[in-house]
Structures are given as structure tokens and as C-alpha cells.
Amino acid sequence: MALDQSFVGRSYPPSAPYEVGREKIREFAEAVGDANPAYLDPEAAKAFGHPDVIAPPTFVFSITYKAAGVVIQDPQLGLDYSRVVHGDQKFAYRRPVRAGDRLTVTSTIEAIKSLAGNDILDIRGEVHDEAGEHVVTAWTKLVARAAEEA
Amino acid sequence: MTAKIAYDDVEVGTELPAETFPVTRATLVQYAGASGDFNPIHWNEKFAKEVGLPDVIAHGMFTMAEAIRVVTDWTGDPAAVVEYGVRFTKPVVVPNDDQGAVVEVSGKVAAKLDDGTVRVDLLATCGGQKVLGMSRAVVRLA
């Protein structure tokens, strides 16, 4: 069944703060095989002008996607999560995520479309730091594939 | 932000050094742990086949993370990336053998923008097939 268009524009309350740690950044950088010293060595990060190690560009997805759970699991919206695939992903950065950040995410439904029986859901996650400054925006397009006819 | 590449030194068509990224089952288990994405399609062959996939596939976000390395290795400072987006067009299938799969990524400057940034278009392929579409980054150069 097509998703309810009246959910377009709906924003959900901000997520609980996620504290970014140096070792979590290191773990992620190692998992993608990236030895860029800006991720691993605070002194190297400072030489680039950052106050501490920064996170790889896609690191923040783990935080925004978890936060998007309020949308994905909203029983009123009724998305069939078992049929969901990740269609598109985009980020726009005000500054890189860095160790010591305490980040909250506000998720908003930007668009709902129905195409050939597939439900397409666009979620925007606005990420702010503890001071309330914008850090990055993540756009996630999810596609719930059409259910097979019984 | 201190990119080691200068805006004035690049032109539309400037190619970034291409890179290849091997992906094995062990890589996917490690990425699952680091990212918190434990969807079994990324590590359980039986489950992947039951949902109609040819085999275990890589996390799309893993491929996205590798593709941008062509840009961040080029600029030195990863903070040079001000925008980055992709479309997940084809899965990277990762067989359970010593070889796994290899993702090949190239990039080139597609546009010079007015504010000291450039648009880089990335091409990511696996086994000759494009795995990311609309793969673009806006990058602030020195």
C-alpha cells in the first residue's frame, strides 16, 4: 500500500546525543582500509587545522541512519522495512565530524513517492553539535520494493 | 582546511589518480562491526540467496566510503570534501574465496565552480560493471 503523502514535511524530535570517540573513528578508518593520518593522529589532524582527529566523510551515516529509525519504524507511516533497499545517499558538510563531538540528528521526511508499486522515501538528517551549530546534512533515499502479488 | 591541490592547478578533465580496493568476506565482517550495519545480506550467504541475491554483497556504504578515497588521497586533508553523493546502482558481489571482489575507482574534474571548489565525478566499477551512479563530490581546493 502506498505511503501516506501527509507525512511529507514531518520532522521528528532530535536523537539523543552521540559522542564521537577517537577510537571509534580509528575502528571505522581501519575497516575501510584508510590510513589517512587526519583520522588517526591528533597531531597530524592539527597540522591540517583541525582541533582533533576527524572522521572519514561517510562515518556520520551510522549516526544519521540510526536516528532515521524514528521514521523507518514509525508505525503510523507503516514502511515495510523487510523490503527496503538503500537507493541514494548524499552528504553536505559544514565541517568534518571530529572526535569529541556530541551530535544530535533531526530527521525529516522530505518526499514520498510511489513508482511502479515501489515506495520511495527521502529522509533528511540535520546533524548539529552540542553548541547547536550545523555540522552536516545527510539525505537518504530508501526504496521499499513492491510486494509480490499473493 | 589545507588541501595539497591548488584550484588554479586543475582544469576540467584533470584526472585523479585511480585506485583499486579489494573486498573479501573478512572486510565485510570488519565493516559491519565498525559501522553497526549487521544486515545478514552482507555476511550470510544462505540468507542472501534466500532474498534473491546471487551471493553475499558488500555494504553500499562501504563502496561509498572507498570511492571517496580517490578524492581524499588526492587532497590530503579529507575536510576538502564539502559535498558527496552516490546512487547505489548495482551490488558488489563478494564470493567466499581468497580473492573476493575488487572495486576500481577513477575520478576526474567535471566542473570548476566559482567559489574555489571543483566538482569531481567518480566512476566505481566491479568486474567491469558500474556499481555507483551519479557519484559526485564537491571539493574545496587550496
Automatic annotation (TrEMBL), chain A:
**Annotated signal sequence range:** none
Pfam families membership:
FAS1_DH_region (PF13452)
Q: Which InterPro entries is this protein grouped with?
A: FAS1-like_DH_region, HadA-like, HotDog_dom_sf, UPF0336/Enoyl-CoA_hydratase
Provide the GO MF annotations for this entry.
hydro-lyase activity
Membrane-crossing segments per the record: none
Give every FAS1-like dehydratase domain span: 6-137
Alphabetized HAMAP family for the sequence: UPF0336
- Family assignment from sequence similarity: Belongs to the UPF0336 family.
Which PANTHER family did the record assign?
Answer: HYDROXYACYL-THIOESTER DEHYDRATASE TYPE 2, MITOCHONDRIAL, HYDROXYACYL-THIOESTER DEHYDRATASE TYPE 2, MITOCHONDRIAL-RELATED
UniProt-recorded name of the protein: UPF0336 protein RM877_05355
Q: Which organism is it from?
A: Streptomyces doudnae
From TrEMBL, chain B:
Q: Pinpoint the MaoC-like domain residues.
A: 16-120
**Highest taxon in the source lineage:** Bacteria
Check the record and name the Gene3D superfamilies matching this protein: Hotdog Thioesterase
Q: Which Pfam families match?
A: MaoC_dehydratas
Family the UniProt entry places it in: Belongs to the enoyl-CoA hydratase/isomerase family.
Q: What is this protein called?
A: MaoC family dehydratase
Q: Which organism is it from?
A: Streptomyces doudnae
